[in-house]
Amino acid sequence: MAFEENDVALDADQQMTADEEALLDELGIFGESRRKFLGQLGGVGLGALVLQVLAEEKALAFSDSETAYVAPAVENPVTVSFTVNGAKKSLELDSRMTLLDALRERLGLTGSKKGCDHGQCGACTVIIDGRRVLACLTLTAQCEAKSVTTIEGIAKGTDLHAIQTAFIKHDAFQCGFCTPGQICSAVALMQEAKNGEASYLTANVRQKTGALQLSDDEIRERMSGNLCRCGAYPNIVAAIREAHTGKATDPMAISQMEVHDATV
Ligand code: FES
Ligand code: FES
Questions:
Q1: 227 lines ligand 1 (CB under 6 A)
Q2: Is ligand 1 within 6 A of the CB of residue 117?
Q3: Does residue 226 share a domain with residue 205?
């Protein structure tokens, strides 16, 4: 049987074209291995095999060139130097790149979430020079020489911010997707209250009041730009109230009416 296979192999070997020889050379099939390989081919023509392999290689090369990712050209490059979570950064990027994309795609800070990318959900909230902003509506080019704080920069090492501790205590999240934005917003909210800044619910915006003690309604109003699809609003309000007042809040003390109001 082995003798017959070798015979076939030798016959086929003798009839090989230059293309076929080149293919077997490329595949590293020489000498005895080549004879065995040709013997195993049996009645299948080597020419057909060569054509098939060449066609597959061509198809692969074609699909590679079709699907290979080509980074879009930076059409309007600008260099932006700013501080992110205390570290100086200098990025050359397209002048149209949003801060959210720069944080996530250029700096690897994926804590800020892209929920809607249209300024509607608050998942991308970060703090710039003490003010909360929506990173999806902010161009990175606007951040020259500014200081950006993301959720990754809220804690000091292993010391959590009071808001973070309160969120954990009050279970103020379920899936967690909105949480980075909620926490950044709440941290800035606490500073706004300390500064005595007015909100839509402030009765007299001309009155200088100093630091404000925020009611739950004030907290809800000031957090209304941060949506939570999981509906963790009562727990979020309880967490912010506790961090804001410094007094322990019983999450179970929130009435059903408040739960209803908070989710409207
Ligand atoms: S992702 Fe920015 S507001 Fe929704
Ligand atoms: S915890 Fe899921 S969206 Fe807010």
A1: no
A2: yes
A3: yes
Last residue in a domain, options 19, 40, 67? 67
Residues in the chain: 264
CA of 226 to the centre of ligand 2 (A): 10
> pLDDT digits over 204-219, tens only?
877 777 888 899 999 9
Give the closest ligand to the alpha carbon of residue 172: 2
Query: Which ligand is nearest to the Cα of residue 138, counting in written order?
Result: 1
Question: Would you say residue 108 lies in a domain?
Answer: yes
> Using CA positions, which residue lies closest to atom 3 of ligand 1?
119
Q: How far apart are CA 198 and CA 45, in angstroms?
A: 85
Return d(Cα 112, Cα 179) in angstroms, integer. Answer: 9
Q: Which of 59-73, 138-152, 243-257 is the least confident region?
A: 59-73
Decide if 236 is inside a domain: yes
Same domain for 141 and 179, yes or no, is no
In this model, does residue 28 exceed pLDDT 60?
A: yes
| Number of domains forming the structure of the chain | 3
**Residue for token digits 């804690």?**
155
Q: How many angstroms is it from 104 CA to the middle of ligand 2?
A: 20
